[in-house]
Amino acid sequence: MVLFLLLLLVAMVLGIIGAVTHGLLYLLIIAIALFIGDLTYAGLRLRRGSGRHALR
């Protein structure tokens, strides 16, 4: 969970810097790619973690 939030924060910061600063459009593209990767990571982790509950 900490890794998810850290990557989300980095993606937001890079996206803001890339959108505001002229000539740094590549930072915005990197932020979008990082955000998509972060959502994919979270989706896979939630899907994989749902079947590991032990029955009591």
Topology diagram in text:
Elements: H1 2-20, H2 25-49
Helix pairs in contact: 1-2
General description of the model:
With 56 residues, the chain is mostly helical. The chain has one domain. Helices cover 79% and strands 0% of the residues. The protein is elongated and about 60 Å long. It starts with a helix and ends in a 7-residue tail after the last helix.
Average pLDDT rating: 83
Whole-number total of structural domains: 1
Shape: elongated
Rg on CA atoms, Å? 15 Å
In short:
The protein has helices at 2-20, 25-49. By secondary structure, it is mainly alpha-helical.
Features:
single chain, 56 residues, mainly alpha, 2 helices, 0% strand, elongated
